[in-house]
Write a structure and sequence with these properties.
- By secondary structure, the chain is α+β, with helices and mostly antiparallel strands.
- It folds into two domains: 15-166, 2-Layer Sandwich (Ribosomal Protein S5, domain 2); 173-282, GHMP kinase, C-terminal domain (Alpha-Beta Plaits), CATH 3.30.70.890.
- The protein has helices spanning 76-88, 110-125, 132-140, 146-151, 185-190, 203-207, 216-222, 224-238, 260-269; strands spanning 15-30, 36-56, 61-63, 93-99, 155-159, 163-166, 173-178, 245-246, 253-257, 275-282.
- Strands 1, 2, 3, 4, 5, 6, 7, 8, 9 and 10 form a ten-stranded mixed β-sheet that branches.
- Helix 2 crosses helix 3 and helix 7 crosses helix 8 (224-238).
- The protein is globular, with a radius of gyration of 19 Å.
- It binds 4-diphosphocytidyl-2-C-methyl-D-erythritol 2-phosphate and adenosine-5'-diphosphate.
- Adenosine-5'-diphosphate (ADP) is lined by residues 67, 70, 74-77, 98, 104-112, 114, 185, 248.
Length: 291
């Protein structure tokens, strides 16, 4: 068991909420409540939303700046803060501003990451003294991807993403392409064509090159703009010995490169409707300070 790491604000006082990539994703079964059992590998990238917390004396939780189109009451940062208050009976308050950089509904886990950063930051700022295990459990109630962001270590994940084994992997440069379409996670998991019985694999199979994402065929079928971006990247990446992959249920697609320059070259050629960015893979979440 690795020792617990401490989340910390950046030099300018902002608390980072990084994105994740699913480097592979198998759907290996379904729970009685309809949720799907997965096997996946999570790695962070150094592309982040930035959160600001200002304590209030009146016990209220309010969101100021935030993601366009997200009602403050529904924002995962507010829900995370309220979940902490409900769990601990704490009567402290906070104003939260979210400077959004990560695309939403792209499979980069920004909402889950915002929730995890809020749990970790307020645990310290409100002096609650909860353990990482307790925060991960509260986080799981907000979203399946929250626990990995709470723990801050790249991981092999099973269950719905809550059974986590930390892993150390190469940290390549990723080119991430965001097609102009949000993918509805629920619709992908509800699709009759989704393969739900992949034979379970081991981390060793992933290391040996099994990087498949079972959601890919369904997403390519229903989202033409994701298909176009994926096929374009497939061509560009294969010319450099890399492969295109889908993160989570998409619609972001990505490819790994050994240098920033290679990734940036492909990004520079990306057609206009797609937002392309280059970020470094990280086994330790940038929220926990420099590697
Ligand atoms: C697939 C993954 C892989 O990292 O990532 P994303 O592509 O969303 O980032 C996650 O497991 C996404 O988890 P989470 O973020 O909690 O999913 P939600 O958007 O809350 O899920 C929406 C709906 O999808 C279905 N769902 C989700 C996860 C899962 N393991 N099985 C499911 O069947 C459920 O119907 C759920 O109500
Ligand atoms: N602070 C937030 N940031 C992003 N999304 C949020 C936030 N609060 C609530 N959401 C909701 O969570 C959904 C999933 O967002 P996100 O985690 O960014 O994408 P994904 O699950 O595809 O990786 C969004 O479509 C949005 O409705």
């Amino acid at each position: 068991m690795l020792p617990e790491m401490l989340a910390q604000p950046a030099a300018d006082g902002a608390w980072l909420a990084p994105a994740k990539l699913n480097l592979m994703l198998k759907v290996v079964g379904r729970r009685a409540d309809g949720y799907h059992l997965l096997q996946t590998v999570f790695q962070f990238i150094d592309r982040c939303d930035r959160l600001h917390f200002q304590l209030r004396a009146d016990g209220r939780v309010q969101r100021g700046r935030g993601a366009l189109g997200i009602d403050p009451a529904q924002d995962l940062v507010v829900r995370a803060a309220l979940a902490l208050k409900a769990r601990t009976g704490c009567d402290a308050g906070v104003d939260i501003d979210v400077d959004k950089c990560l695309p939403m509904g792209g499979g980069l886990g920004g909402g889950s990451s915002n929730a995890a950063t809020t749990l970790l930051a307020l645990n310290q700022l409100w002096g609650l003294g909860l353990t990482q295990d307790q925060l991960a459990e509260i986080g799981l109630g907000l979203g399946a991807d929250v626990p990995v962001f709470v723990r801050g270590q790249a991981a092999w994940a099973e269950g719905v993403g809550e059974r986590l084994t930390p892993v150390t992997m190469p940290e390549p440069w990723y080119l991430v392409l965001t097609p102009p379409t949000a993918v509805a996670t629920a619709a992908v998991f509800a699709d009759p064509a989704l393969t739900r019985n992949s034979p379970p694999v081991k981390m060793a199979d992933f290391i040996e090159g099994d990087e498949a994402n079972d959601c890919l065929p369904v997403v390519l079928d229903h989202y033409p703009s994701v298909a176009e971006a994926f096929h374009w990247l497939e061509q560009q990446a294969s010319a450099q010995g890399s492969k295109a992959r889908l993160t989570g249920t998409g619609g972001c697609v990505f490819a790994a490169f050994s240098t920033a320059q290679e990734a940036q070259q492909v990004a520079a050629d990306a057609p206009a409707p797609w937002n392309a960015f280059v970020a470094r893979g990280r086994n330790r979440s940038p929220l926990f300070g420099p590697a």
